[in-house]
Every structure is written in structure tokens, then in C-alpha cells.
Prior knowledge:
The chain is mainly α and 196 residues long. It folds into two domains: 23-68, Up-down Bundle (Single alpha-helices involved in coiled-coils or other helix-helix interfaces); 75-193, AhpD-like (Up-down Bundle). It contains ten helices and no strands.
Amino acid sequence: MEKRVQSESENPVTDLDLGMADDLGEDTLAYFRKCEEKLGLVPNVLKAYAFDEKKLRAFSEFYNDLMLAPSGLSKLDREMIAVVVSSLNHCHYCLTAHGAAVRELSGDAVLGDTLVMNYRAASLDRRQRAMLDFAVKLTEQPDRIEETDRQMLRACGFDNRDIWDIAAVAAFFNMSNRVATATGMRPNHAYFSAGR
């Protein structure tokens, strides 16, 4: 008997299988079309939030501001933080999606995979190491963040706005990881081969 493989569109994107709202507005549909044009897919995280358009809009606006708006942190810096935080939290969805982004932005599949496994084994410069060390401490021991931690970042060239952005990205992914894990969110298949 021939085994039929389900297409990604036939599978629920979370174990909760809330589906997408039937009455998504034109702005949301246009956003999904833009994702299809730029990425070749609509990320499953957006589909997961689409059961409630207000929640989807809040999530996507905050995400886009943190990850795409002008910042002293590069897009790669921000994706590296996402991967390292997600690694600590063992978030399958975010490790797959943002690991792919690191591979694509850096052009280095080894870097992307090493960050997923253990960022301390990656070839990083002093600035990157300090940024990721701070994100790790904020994830594992938030009550232990002190002025000396911020001073270490300043000594590596980060200004106060950059420190805010490092903290905001790390905090966002701590929240996002927990929602993705709690709901059994599945990554898009395309992420597994991206940037390899």
C-alpha cells in the first residue's frame, strides 16, 4: 500500500488546531501575501495566531519592530539572540525557523547549527559573545542582571539603546518560546533546508 504524505497545508500548525479566523481583514491577507512573495511561505507562527486577528496583529507588529526596525543591532545579531534563547528553552519551532534565518543571513550553515547546539562553541567576536552572554543570563538568571553586565556590553561598543534592544529581543523570545512549546507549534518544512 502506498503511503501518502500530507502536505504542510493539510496539517494543523499547533496541537490546539484553532484554525484561522474566517473573516481575516484585507490588511492581514495582504500581509500574508507579502510573506509568500518575500519568504515563499506564510510562517506557521502567523497562521497559529490567526485564530484571533487582534492577537496576530499585536504579535506581528511587536515582532517586526524588534526584528526588522532600525537598530544598532544587525538583523543577524537579533536572529542570533533568538536562536540562543530558543536553544536554552528547547523551542523546536524557533530553533528551526531562526536557525534557518541565521544560516541565510550569515551565509554560514556551521554558525547557524552551532548556535542551535551551543553558542559557546561558535566562532564569535568579542561583541557577539558579550551580546549572547547577556541574553543567556537574562534568560536563565534575570534577577542577577546588574550594572556590571550592562558595563560589559558598553565596553564592547553597545550603547544604552542597543542594550535595550538586546534585552527586548531576548525577552520576546522567552515569551514566544513558551507559547510555541505549550501549543505544540510546528515549523514550516522549508525552514529545515533553508541556508544549507
